[in-house]
């Protein structure tokens, strides 16, 4: 970042796998935003889905670029397509599932920023057991370490 300005080229930044069958490409975060937010691009195949979860201190916002994603928000079901925005404030139970027959892409904004190290550790945990379900206790410990429980 130079003089408070920054440009991130398309398709740059590290990509990290998650236990949900998707990947998150890091666009910007902690250092560049002084911890205010981190921005990611999620790419997920049809059927990829998260488990219901709650962030105690972090908002998670989704801006759908391609495909259809169905969200569960505190028991309410909403299907979002290109151009739709979905927000889960801290304390709101939420989950997502790709319900289109094609890959879905969305911009994901975490506020405040979720550190890059979190995504690196999750990726490493998923990589330890290729093709197998990752150790849920290990994933929970990583989430707790970064205050994302």
What order do the helices and strands come in, and which of them pair?
Layout: E1 15-17, E2 23-28, E3 38-44, E4 59-66, E5 69-73, E6 76-80, E7 85-88, E8 94-98, E9 104-111, H1 116-127, H2 136-145
Antiparallel strand pairs: 1-2, 2-3, 3-9, 4-7, 4-9, 5-6, 5-8
Folded structure, characterized:
15% of the residues lie in helices and 34% in strands. It is of the alpha+beta class and 149 residues long. The strands form two sheets. It has a six-stranded antiparallel sheet with strand order 1-2-3-9-4-7. Helix 1 (116-127) packs antiparallel against helix 2.
The N- and C-terminal alpha carbons lie at a distance of 31 Å
CATH topology descriptor: Jelly Rolls
Radius of gyration: 15 Å
| CATH homologous superfamily placement | Jelly Rolls
The CATH level-2 architecture is identified as Sandwich
Average pLDDT reading: 91
Note the beta-strand portion.
25-35%
How is the biggest beta sheet arranged? 6 strands, antiparallel
DSSP summary: helix tally:
2
Total number of beta strands: 9
Q: What is the CATH class name?
A: Mainly Beta
Shape: globular
Order of helices and strands: EEEEEEEEEHH
Strand order of the largest sheet: 1-2-3-9-4-7
Residue runs with pLDDT of under 50 for 5 or more positions: none
Multimeric organization: single chain
Domain count: 1
Summing up helix and strand content along with how strands pair, one would put the structural category as: alpha+beta
